[in-house]
Amino acid sequence: METVTSDEQIVERALSGDAEAFGEIVRRWERRIFALAYGMLGREEDARDATQETFLSAFRNLRGFRGEAKVSSWLHRIAVNQCITRQRRSKVRGETTLEDETGAEAASFSAPAHQSPARVAESRERAEIVRRAVSALPTELRQVIVMKEFEELTFQEIAAVLELPLSTVKSRLYTALRQLQMRLRNMATEIG
Amino acid sequence: MKESTGTNLCERAEDLVTYLYGEATAEETLQFERHIERCSSCRTELVAFGDVRSSVVEWRQQALRSFASQESKAAAVRGFEPVEASRRGRSALAALRQFFRLSPMWLRAATALGGVAFCALAALAVVYFVQGPRTVIVEAPVKSGYSEDQVKAMIEDAQKRQAALRASETPVPSRESFEPGTNREPKVQSSIKGNVRGAQGHAGVARRQALPRNLVRQPVTEALASSDYLPFTAPNNEERLPNLTDLLDDDDN
């Protein structure tokens, strides 16, 4: 029976000179880090860039990883910082905000083949509404909801990544859900 | 109960999200379920938040499906085997390469530019080491038009000529008899002879006419100074000019 190597063991291997070890970390976490970045940034291209930068930053700072936190928390923290930095840069450069974007991004989504075109179109439309609603949240609320819904991290893990008290994470998530509910309702009313 | 965003909220908001995401302990779950039986606000929010979650999950699934499909497309384009099969053989470098492959155009262009610059530098380094280091002699800057060695040689040359002149005790040709700008002796001689034979008052005028115009305007000393000859010395490759008395003697003969 094949034993599952922990992330921490893989990082140790990478630190001891195993060239393939970091690649294993990337393979394990790229999808989830992309999901986090996508949830935070709302644009696929930006999410890909942020994902790359996250792993490059992790690779560069591998020696600085002291094992005090879990590798996953460490990676998520880097990813969140990358996303926040990108958002700040975008604001400084005056780039188009996510809320202003049209449904072009949603059109790139791939849908299951068994769905009818009408169902696919409806699904895309809903996804676009959610994307815009999430993007309109303040950063501190958005990162919590994305970590919970996209990453499926526990409250404890989110608290560790963001270095926040557990109760703060829960209250932020509650506020985020409430704001999303209101925004989704308003958007649905506007469209309907 | 507290008022927020127009809806009555229960104090147990944190318990609500803990219960919603299934992270409550068995005891907490039991207590909250008892609570929602009598708290309509929490019941309503629980349903509404459930709808929000399902919408967000749907969005997430679409986004991740898009990511997965693009990953498989990229793998197909590369001619790679499915990810599971190729997983064992991939290195950290390959994983990073994959990320660069997915990178935007500006990052690729920058990487390409850096690669070209690196190759150029590497080629220069190879050429340098193949040819071997050369000893580069840097001469001290020369202040005038002559190098230090040239000046020394000229001084020594002048000294030798002066010494030779002194040794032969031959009278040095006077400035008046020396006609700069003309190195040919016959012309000098005929010019001087003509001057002697001609009217005495016209001798100076005739000599000025024989001289080049630029030298006529200048005193003879300036003309000498402007020439390449050192003052009071004759160049080695020229014969010494005869004295006036010698010429007169020749005519008499």
Computed Rg of chain A: 18 Å
Kindly state the mean pLDDT of chain A as a whole number?
A: 82
Structural class of chain A: mainly alpha
Low-confidence stretches of chain B: 1-6, 76-90, 176-221, 223-233
Oligomer: heterodimer
Helix content of chain A: over 70%
Order of helices and strands of chain A: HHHHHHHHH
Q: What's the total helix number of chain B? A: 12
Structure description:
The complex is a heterodimer of chains A (192) and B (253). Chain A has nine helices and no strands. Helices cover 72% and strands 0% of the residues of chain A. By secondary structure, chain A is mainly α. The relative contact order of chain A is 0.11. Chain A has helices at residues 7-15, 21-41, 44-60, 71-93, 104-107, 117-135, 139-149, 155-162, 166-191. The longest helix of chain A is centred in the last third of the chain and has 26 residues, at 166-191. Chain B is rod-shaped, with a radius of gyration of 54 Å. Chain B contains twelve helices and two strands. By secondary structure, chain B is mostly helical. Helices cover 65% and strands 2% of the residues of chain B. Chain B has a two-stranded antiparallel sheet with strand order 1-2. At the A-B interface, helix 2, helix 3, helix 6, helix 7 and helix 9 of A face helix 1, helix 3 and helix 5 of B.
Would you summarize the structure shown here?
The complex is a heterodimer of chains A (192) and B (253). With 192 residues, chain A is mainly alpha-helical. Helix content of chain A is 72%, strand content 0%.
